[in-house]
Amino acid sequence: MTVQSRSSLISLIVPAITTAIWFIILCGLIYPLVVTVVANVIFPYQAHGSLIVGSNNKVIGSELIGQNFVAPKYFHPRPSATTKTGTTDKADPYNAAQSGASNYGPTNKKLIDGVKAAVDAYRKENGLAANVLVPVDAVTASASGLDPDITIANANLQASRVAKARNLSLSDVQNLIAQNTQGRQFGFLGEPRVNVLKLNLALDRGKS
Amino acid sequence: MFLNILQIAIIILIIGFGLVIPIGKYLVKIFTDEKDTVFERITYNVLRVDSTEQMTWQRYSQAILFSNLFLVLVFYAALRLQLSLPLNPDHLSPAPSPDLSFNAAISFVTNTDWQSYGGETTLSYFNQMIMITSLMFTSAATGLAGGVAVIRGLSQNGVNNLGNFWVDLTRGIYRIFLPLSLVLALVYVWQGMPQTLDPAAVATTLEGATQTIARGPVASLESIKQIGTNGGGFFNQNSAHPFENPTALTNALEIISMLLIVPALTYTFGKITKAPRQGWVFFGVFAALFIGFLVIILPAEQIGNPLFTSLGIDQSITSEQSGGNFEGKEVRFGIAQTSLFVTATTAATTGSVDAMHDSLTPMGGFAALSEMLLNVVFGGKGVGLITLIMYAAVTVFLVGLMVGRTPEFLNKKIEAKEVKLVSLALLAHPFLILIGTGLALIWPKALDSLNNPDAHGFSELFYAFTSATANNGSAFAGINANTVFYNSILGIAIIYGRFMAPLLPMLAVAGSLAIKSRVPKTTGTMSTNTVFFSVLLLAAILIVGGLTFFPALALGPIAEQFELAAGKTF
Questions:
Q1: Which of B94, B252, B317, B564 has the smallest set of CB atoms within 10 Å of its CB?
Q2: Residue contact A22–B332, C-beta within 8 A
Q3: Residue A5, domain member (yes or no)
Q4: How many domains would you assign to chain A?
Q5: CA-CA distance, A202 to B7, in Å (whole number)?
Q6: ipTM given for this complex
Q7: In which domain, by residue range, is B14 found?
Q8: Apex A81 CA angle, A124 and A52, nearest 5
Q9: Of B98, B528, B45, B482, which Cα lies nearest the Cα of B273?
Q10: Is the pTM of this model over 0.90?
């Protein structure tokens, strides 16, 4: 068996260039465009970002992307560490043009102080006694800064505040939470969760 | 708790038992197939590739280097020229700086995907789609080709022939990466990943604020990002971003994708070298390390942050919440899916993240770091197996010295030349990690980039150099690495890590062993396909790898664990 090993380096340059160009065209242009066309035909809603459109044809948001809520009549999402686009120090929660997290380590004083303030604020706003434990997701920033969900525990503790602000009975609000709770996928994957935007939309719809 | 264990177990069983043999067999077929498909034949003709050439290890290495060099140049140019190129609907500017472009070009061509920029605020769709998506294919196929070439070398009997790089590259893309990515991308869109060339959406929220929602051709990038163990995110927050990982199913598929090929490669190795038991020994060692690290991460994250307890926070696991250390994590994944993702992404050198590693508990961070330091917990495409073969050579040499037996591996004598090359590959990895970290500690203003003080700050630095050298790409992301110093030195670490630890030295070992004739087995031969050898191999990995890095780990996550236990904050 003979093995060619003496061919010059030049003979490697041509295939290095031609293969690179071909695979850039095939994998960078043809493949993504095929996916785009097929996806837009069979899953047009998801392909465009799962956008929720209101009655006036205006986009309200994406069901997958959290948005900021501060009014008492709305359920509130988790703290978000995103900042104004192009900055790293000007807070701008739920800025979906620049995802971000705190990236604080567990012994960082800034983390502990921030969480402490969030616990106090959460208790005050929801009228909770000092001995009621606060669910951890309600006081910690998410990884994306855009977490669309809160835990059931978190939603339940906010229910009476929302009910009061809307003059609804607590059980009505609790029913809405239950209706907007997504269980584990296929019964075992991930965690049960409540989509804040969908729940708040349901509240607004119930009102009108 | 039960469901936590169950979902982890199901995913691991799918990978470990459902996929290793079928994928392994398929890989054997692809890389030993004598016949080209029609499409491959046309490709070779048009691209002027001599598909019949059989390459020595030297030539195979040169082909890899030339191919990568050209891709780096093209991507660098595309980044610098971003403003002059099409497909920038959000008018992102300015174009990436020269140091950032240097770092990114090297990072993506070498399958590292370290990112010192945020995707949605920096890169046009042209660079995200045409450049990065295609580089994810070529870099994954290059790594796989390297792994296959080493396997071929070990299976030869007296011939310096590692195969043909262009054929391996093309077959990897045509027969595995492209078809799989196409199917998975559509599944991802179904689950909610965007796939569009439209610019960012502008929403008016229920409270009347304006929210700009970045999107783009995400799904087509995401599928190859995970299958190819690349890991570079479309968005700044990578697989934690709801558009890059919308549901628990996509999270599970992303985990399975990362571990689809590398574990199966052990089977392929066993088949091609005609030593199937050796393949299973390697699989067993990989799996033992993987489970070991998972068992450290999962409880550490589930127990949570002890400093939160006195603040009146509920971190317990109930039917209404997953509890645990929740800073930098997402509700839909919870602790179980997140812990498995962390273990897998630092094992398979993917480097994508579905939670912020910077906010992991000290022991969670310790395990993530350690997996990259050892670099043999499955490892990246091809390279993980190469590293394990390197450790196997170290083990037979060490044990051979101790008991006075000739070091042999797969019926080939391991002699001075191979041991020297193996030592080179073995030392290259810690050399750059430790020297780089040390340099950053004394470099003027380099520590200004840190986001955390004290021991955790040291971990941020140590993690950056480990991730770059191990070609992982994940980060303790608080560190601001987009400076001339970090972009340059980490770029160098990435090149060095890719080619010196262990690709080129191990291709040389494979070439050197390929030329040797097989020696018959004697009573003096130590078997390398036994449980006993697996234990020796594990010990060699943990002792050699562990001792090298223990001092640095003690300054970082281990110190932090003691600080946390003592209730200290900084």
A1: B94
A2: no
A3: no
A4: 2
A5: 31
A6: 0.95
A7: 2-565
A8: 90
A9: B528
A10: yes
